[in-house]
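> Could you send the Dihydroorotate dehydrogenase (quinone), mitochondrial prediction when you get a chance?

Sure thing. Input:
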Amino acid sequence: MATRVALRFMRECSLYRKVKSNHISRHCFSNAASATTPPIPKKVPQFAKKGRLFTGVAIGLLIGGGAYASTVDEATFCGWLFSATKLVNPFFAFLDPEVAHRLAVAAAARGWVPVEKRSDPPILELNVWGRRFSNPIGLSAGFDKNAEAVEGLLGLGFGFVEVGSVTPIPQEGNPKPRIFRLRNEGAIINRCGFNSEGIVAVAKRLGVQHGKRKLETSSSSSATEDEAVHGGKAGPGILGVNLGKNKTSEDAAADYVQGVHTLSQYADYLVINISSPNTPGLRQLQGRKQLKDLVKKVQAARDEMQWGEEGPPPLLVKIAPDLSKQDLEDIAAVALALRVDGLIISNTTIQRPDPVSKSPVAEETGGLSGKPLFNLSTNILKDMYILTKGRIPLIGCGGVSSGEDAYKKIRAGATLVQLYTAFAYGGPALIPKLKAELAECLERDGYKSIYEAVGADCR
Ligand SMILES: Cc1cc2nc3c(=O)[nH]c(=O)nc-3n(C[C@H](O)[C@H](O)[C@H](O)COP(=O)(O)O)c2cc1C
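Output:
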């Protein structure tokens, strides 16, 4: 198609030149007839010549590029699109962090992001909670707090996307500015404080998307076959819903129960988030007795609801990286006793490890995420894998920015991996790169699947 356009363009150009030269010669002839001296050709200014040359080269490149692009296969073209997104990163870096974030969510919500057409390396495929993940790399909570862009984000090639944290009643969160970049350290400090449109707005949005996704599922092949393939009852891609509590609420359990009642029907898994450092008192819910009471109530609320054959969504707890050995033992004991389906390790830290401590931004109140969180969260992950004896699927989160990092999380005990900060800096191009690197790491060390590598460093 592009070749045809190019040929046509060239033909039209040569025709134009012919007509022009005819016109000039006719013009010269009439001049010659009317005057005795031959006309002096007009001198073309140097810059105009250069301008024409430049335009010609640009058009040539455009046409040549278009013609070449039309000959490459879909996978190569898809790779180009993902790489091209790197061009907009400097523009985002220039904007205020929260404005940049809003823009990114809006773009993903409108489908102005590339769609991953290439299939994931088979070695990355796995089954957790009876759900099939085409790869173990997920987007963690906080990016799409209000479930505005689930389709666009899943389309980028994440194995799963977690929306939220969603609070029962809409709330503004903390005053702005509340997100701070530490670019050189590959980190962010945030004190968002659960800014959320609330469970009703999110349920409405997920209801529309859920209906659409269901429709797509049933129209392509048979619904049962598709559900087995994609694992998620919400259609292609796995969707997690992360629940938070309102700042003013005095009954945390009631808040999480409300979240379960309103949102669990749309979720492939649910998360009780008791580890955000920006909601006063929240982290105290990680104490042994508090956690036990809370999990029991939330599990009961979920189990009382009517569920189809696939059963209720698994219930996970997201914990902080700032926990003592005793805290970790308590959480592990509760998780094992109450058969919690999974733990996410971890949320952001209130610590300021080197080199962040040297930055003036380090003084901002809030949770630190990104590269400086990697060691802290990976150590806690390892401890928790040992304490839970590998019986509970763990999601490793904190400072992942490469396939090697994701691999380290898996070796430390994670079955699935999540990231946020590295995606905020690296954009869509990071995801295929990270998946390819992870597959390489597994193959390099002779693993045939992710399961074989889970907890390898704890044995
Ligand atoms: C701006 C921002 C907002 C976040 N909001 C939430 C949230 O609402 N709920 C939650 O559980 N985690 C939230 N997180 C934490 C992330 O989900 C993740 O646990 C943490 O950032 C560590 O991962 P990372 O180092 O890959 O960013 C947020 C993180 C950032 C940077």
